[in-house]
Design goal:
- By secondary structure, the protein is α/β, with parallel strands linked by helices.
- The chain has two domains: about 150 residues, 3-Layer(aba) Sandwich (Rossmann fold); about 220 residues, Dihydrodipicolinate Reductase, domain 2 (2-Layer Sandwich).
- The strands form two sheets. Strands 7, 8, 9, 10, 11, 12, 13, 14, 15 and 16 form a ten-stranded mixed sheet that branches. The protein has a six-stranded parallel sheet with strand order 3-2-1-4-5-6, sandwiched between helices.
- The radius of gyration is 22 Å and the shape is globular.
Length: about 450
């Protein structure tokens, strides 16, 4: 073997060994006790792209950035310069093994297909984890991280940042207070994708750019020759690496509806779409999720819209919206609408200027004035995570015990797209009861050395 092959094989064996610990039972050593002046030692797994925001957000929240890991030196160059004292690595497995004792926590800001592998290893080593949305690449991985969070007890947070903001938290309180009565429908839309989707063939083989470790970038995904159109942004449209427009945006903009209505897992998911292939997510999709009774609450149908059909952005019909034209345009290209038996609520996660129609304005004002703030407020999702990890705050409200089931629900839409047929879902068994085609995509095959 060459030195590189030896290094890869050793790392593979170590990674498999670390994964086996979770299979046969383990005990995570709690992180150190933090004093008044001590800081959370954070390693950034993914320092370019979204990693810049996550590492910088953790630092601004009071964390000490002690290491940075990225497979693309050019993309990470700015963060390497911004944190010159941080140790640098191209392989997070090597980083965690070599300097794991000096790391308290990790931000994971890699492409979707590597989220679970990096997060799982870090959690098993007792590291607090902040992982970008969608939490995982597939439904099985979301369940895996949910269970692992419970077993390890580390502080976790998914990076759907608006979850920590005032608009969503206040809207959740008001919906639960009955501001539009009993809700039976939710409509959520986005203008994504803004990258190519619907591709039938892979890009032609090309030279790997200088500074990019392509094999490490592939991680658990099947080996593919490098081709233009994968990195640094358009990987989102390829099933091997991304989760399409749904995975990219739904963990942001479905959040208020799923949280406020306590939807849990759907019983049935169906999809209409255009341009889906075996390689790539579709150009557009309309996905229907059916939820049953939750206690005394009525069943809910949630419909997701993405992309453009015949050149027009997908969105609820004017009939569904009660004639409100703003929905078709979408503020900032995305939004949501809840339909209750006493009115409709139009909501955008970045604004507290929501709109209620179909209910007397004085009644709306009275409910808003009399509904207490029952959810904790925070200075942001990074502050919420860092404070919780250091013992200085409440548990993050988008921790994996919550974000895991939410991600499962979101990604079931991709099962319906890829199956090409309606999916009846058994959440407890983590499988479809009617679609073998859907069950093929509940989990993926992992390359040697990357299995969970």
């Amino acid at each position: 073997m060459t030195n590189l092959q030896n290094k890869t094989e050793m790392t593979r064996r170590r990674f498999i060994g670390a994964s086996a610990v979770a299979t046969f039972g383990f005990q995570v050593v709690p992180s150190r006790v933090f004093g008044a002046n001590s800081r959370l030692a954070v390693a950034g797994i993914g320092a370019g792209g979204k990693g810049r925001a996550d590492v910088s957000g953790a630092a601004a929240a009071g964390a000490d950035i002690v290491a940075l890991c990225d497979v693309d030196e050019s993309r990470a160059a700015g963060m390497f310069k911004a944190h010159p004292k941080a140790k640098r690595f191209p392989d997070f497995r090597v980083m965690l093994e070599k300097i794991g004792k000096s790391i308290d926590a990790c931000t994971i800001s890699t492409p979707d297909h590597t989220h679970a592998a990096a997060t799982s290893m870090a959690m098993k080593m007792g590291k607090h984890c902040y992982t970008q949305k969608p939490l995982t690449h597939n439904v099985y991985e979301a369940r895996h991280l949910t269970r692992l969070a419970k077993r390890t007890g580390v502080t976790t947070q998914m990076g759907n940042q608006a979850h920590a903001g005032e608009p969503i938290r206040r809207a959740v309180e008001l919906v639960r207070a009955g501001i539009i009565g009993n809700v039976t429908e939710a409509h959520i839309w986005t203008n994504r994708p803004i990258w190519p989707q619907g591709m039938k063939a892979r890009p032609a083989k090309a030279d790997v750019p200088n500074g990019l470790d392509w094999d490490m970038w592939l991680g658990p995904a099947p080996h593919r020759p490098y081709g233009k159109g994968y990195v640094p942004f358009a990987w989102r449209g390829w099933w091997d690496f991304g989760t399409g427009a749904l995975g990219d945006m739904a963990c942001h903009i479905m959040d208020m509806a799923w949280w406020s209505l306590e939807l849990g897992s759907p019983t049935r998911v169906s999809a209409r779409h255009g341009g889906n292939t075996g390689e790539s997510a579709p150009n557009w999709a309309v996905i229907d999720y059916q939820f049953g009774y939750r206690g005394s609450r009525p069943p809910v149908k949630l419909t997701w819209y993405d992309g453009k059909k015949d050149g027009v952005q997908n969105a609820p019909s004017l009939e569904a919206t009660g004639g409100v034209e703003m929905v078709a345009k979408g503020r900032k290209g995305y939004g949501s609408m809840l339909v209750g038996d006493k009115g409709r609520m139009f909501f955008n996660r970045s604004s507290t200027q929501w709109m209620i129609t179909g209910r007397d304005a004085d009644e709306v004002k009275q409910i808003e004035a009399n509904t207490p703030k029952t959810l904790p407020r925070t200075e942001g999702n990074y502050v919420e995570w860092v404070n919780a990890a250091t013992g200085n705050g409440h548990k993050p409200l988008s921790r994996f015990e919550i974000a895991g089931p939410f991600t499962e629900m979101v990604l079931l839409g991709n099962l319906a797209i890829r199956a090409g047929e309606p999916v009846q879902w058994d959440a407890e068994a983590l499988r479809s009861t009617n679609s073998d085609k859907a069950n093929r995509h509940v989990r993926r095959e992992y390359r040697s050395g990357w299995k969970l």
